[in-house]
Amino acid sequence: MYDVVIIGGGAAGLTAAIYACRKALKTLVISPEYGGQTNLTSHIENYPGFIVSTGWDLMAKFKEHAEHFGAETRTGKVITVEKKGEKQFHIHFDDGSKEDCKAVILCHGKLPRPLNIPGEKEFLGRGLSTCATCDAPLYKNKAVAVIGGGNAALEAVEELQHVGAKVTLVHRRDQFRADEITVKKVKALEGVTFILNHAPVAIKGDKYVTCFEIEDVNTKQKQELKLDGVFSEIGHVADSTMVKDLCKLNPAGEVIVDDAGNTSCPGIFAAGDITPVKYKQTVIAAGEGAKAALECHRWLTGGKATGEYSK
Ligand code: NDP
């Protein structure tokens, strides 16, 4: 039996693993893939100690660090966390297998937010992408649209322009959520078209995307952009189905935690983007992961817990 199973192998989960292992807890990290959202960022300039790094490189270091201190890793998808008794949980996988542990730290992050427009399901992976870092190189000399006004969207524009794509940014407002420094940098790029105050309506094509229909949010006038690809960079949503009967969730599906990472279920802790923590950043997820692991250790060793749910 593991002392702790950490669900999720992004910044929060891998940092939690480093801290758990250094407290000599027998630790297993489970994730469908390692690196989380950070993997999808081509250049991180705000992780202290690394003036610039690719998300992939930074996360590879996190994983190496966790394994160095003894964390075991398993690739897989968890479907349910079952509480069997005091300090006893079963972690069930989609292939029917399970792992046993005394405590759980949820760090499973979020999934790309769906556009909920016609053509989305049909063309996902066939011209519609949610990962510019993964797919941008396929679009050299091609026309693409990026949807969104946050850091991810603006960085996707930058990446696509860099590989030689002809990029149009479509955003539903005329204000951006992205950092000002990024907006300024992207506005200065050559050959990028901005279509503001327009919402996505439909993605069309034959075998692959050929057209993106958008609508002016004020006049409701529709227009069709002829292009080869659409990058949806509109944020992420939480899926906490695996603990829905054990932990309190907020209306956004995030796992509610106190200031120490305790959830409403003793023995289950949570950290990173799956919690309501403000400012979803790699450095914040890492810090929250460390905190949750320390709190988990306190709980497992009978120490006096500090959080609201532990009183
Ligand atoms: P955000 O939530 O910041 O932005 C999502 C964008 O998509 C918003 O502009 C939003 O519009 C738009 N949007 C949402 N739903 C729809 C929809 N149905 N149709 C059209 N547009 C839609 O998400 P990000 O993924 O950009 O970023 C998430 C977090 O990760 C942020 O905290 C960000 O700072 C961080 N991040 C940091 C990076 C870095 O530091 N290098 C890189 C990437 C992300 P509206 O503005 O109108 O709501």
What's a concise summary of this model?
The protein is of the alpha/beta class. The protein has helices at 11-22, 55-68, 120-123, 132-135, 151-162, 180-187, 282-300, and strands at 2-9, 27-34, 72-75, 78-85, 88-93, 98-106, 110-112, 128-129, 143-147, 166-170, 193-195, 198-205, 209-216, 222-226, 229-232, 236-238, 268-270. The chain is elongated, with a radius of gyration of 21 Å.
Account of the 3D structure:
This protein is α/β, with parallel strands linked by helices and 311 residues long. It has two domains: 2-110 and 238-310, FAD/NAD(P)-binding domain, CATH 3.50.50.60; 120-232, FAD/NAD(P)-binding domain, CATH 3.50.50.60. Helices cover 23% and strands 30% of the residues. The chain is built from seven helices and 17 strands. Strands 1, 2, 3, 4, 5, 6 and 17 form a seven-stranded mixed beta sheet that branches. The two termini are 27 Å apart. It binds NADPH dihydro-nicotinamide-adenine-dinucleotide phosphate. NADPH dihydro-nicotinamide-adenine-dinucleotide phosphate binds at residues 41, 44, 46, 113, 115, 147-153, 155, 172-173, 177, 199-200, 233-235, 279-280.
Keyword list:
311 residues; 7-stranded mixed beta sheet; binds NADPH dihydro-nicotinamide-adenine-dinucleotide phosphate; 2 domains; FAD/NAD(P)-binding domain
